[in-house]
C-alpha cells in the first residue's frame, strides 16, 4: 500500500504534483472560465456575499490564512480567518450575506463541524473545502469544493494542505469571476500559473536531498524558528507545526515584521532560522525581509533562506540557500511549503520517531 515507501507521509509528499493537478482538473471550461460543479450556490447568492470567514483547525487553518490574502486581493470582499475552536464562542457577527468557508481534509473534525452548525443556525451560507467525499462537514454545507488529493493516511497533512490552498485559490478566482470582469485578465493569468505549479512542486521534490542533508546536519538542535511575511507567514507557521508534530522539537513560526517586537530576543548563536523570502516582484516586502535576515545573522542565527531563482540579494547572509521556482507572490506557498515538509519528515525519521503516527495525535479529532 505504501508503494515502496517507508512512510505514508513520504509517499503523500511525493504525490503533491498530482494532488495539485487533480484539484485543478475539470475546473476550467473551454472558454477559460472557472466552473465549480459542487458550488450549489447561485451567482446571485454569491453576489450577495459581503463578508467571508474562513474557519479550520491546524494545518487547514494555515491554508485559510493564505486564502485571506488571495480572496481579498482578487474579490475585495473582506475575509477573516479564525480557528474553528474559537469561532462560535466569541459571538461572531454573521448573517445571510456572510460566507463561512470551512476547510477540513477529513471532513470530520468536531471543532470545525460545530462551527459550521453554529454558522448555519445564524443563517450564514457555508461552503466547505474538503478531501473526503460524503463526510459530515460537506454533507452539512450549502456548497462544497472537493480537493482531489486522494486518501491522506499520515496524521500530518501534506498533500491535503497543498490541495486546500489550490481550492482556496479557485474559490477566490471564482468569486472574482462572479463579481465581474474587472480582474478578468488577472484571473486567466493566475489560472495559467496554477497549471504550471505541479511541475514546480516536482522540482522541489527532485531537489529534496538538499533538505534531507540539512536535517542530518541539524539533528541535535532543540529549537527552530521560521520567519515569513505576507503569504510566507502561513508557510512559516506550517513549517513550525510540521516540526512540532513530527520531530517533537520546539519550533515557532512568526511574521517577519514581528521579529523586532519580541522574537529577536530568542536569537542566539547557532539557532536555526528558516526564512521565506517573497518574490522580488514585491520589492518592499522582499527588501524588508532581507534586512531581517541580516539582523538575525549578525546575532549568530544559522539562516536557511528559501528564495526564488535569480534573487541573489540574500546570498551573503544565508548559511543555506534553498531555491524556489518563480511563481506569482500569492502562489509561492505551493512551492515553499514542500522543502519544509521534507525537512520535518527527515528530522523525525533521523530521531527515530513514527513519522505517520506521531505521539498523542490523531488524524481526525472528533471531540471538541
Ligand atoms: C489535526 C491533525 O488534529 O487536525 C492536523 O493532526 C490537521 O494534521 C487538523 O491539520 C485538521 O484536520 P482536518 O481533517 O479538519 O483538516
Strand percentage lies at: 15-25%
Q: What's the count of strands?
A: 10
Placed side by side, the strands forming the largest sheet appear as: 2-1-3-4-5
Task: Specify the biggest β-sheet.
Answer: 5 strands, parallel
Q: What value does the average pLDDT take?
A: 94
Tally the helices: what do you get? 14
Helix and strand content put the structural class at alpha/beta
Whole-angstrom Rg: 20 Å
Which regions have little confidence, pLDDT < 50, spanning 5+ residues?
none
**Small ligands present:** 6-O-phosphono-beta-D-glucopyranose
Written as H for each helix and E for each strand, in order along the chain, the element string is HHHEHEHEHEHEHHHHEHEEHEEH
Shape: globular
Provide the helix percentage.
40-55%
Q: Ends: how far apart?
A: 32 Å
Describe the fold and architecture.
Homodimer. Its EC number is 2.6.1.16. Keywords: Aminotransferase, Cytoplasm, Glutamine amidotransferase, Repeat, Transferase. One of its GO terms (cellular component) is cytosol. This is Glutamine--fructose-6-phosphate aminotransferase [isomerizing]. This protein is α/β, with parallel strands linked by helices and 368 residues long. 44% of the residues lie in helices and 15% in strands. The protein contains 14 helices and ten strands. The strands form two sheets. Strands 2-1-3-4-5 form a five-stranded parallel sheet, with helices on both faces. A five-stranded parallel sheet has the order 7-6-8-9-10, sandwiched between helices. The radius of gyration is 20 Å and the shape is globular. The mean pLDDT is 94. It binds 6-O-phosphono-beta-D-glucopyranose. 6-O-phosphono-beta-D-glucopyranose binds next to helix 4.
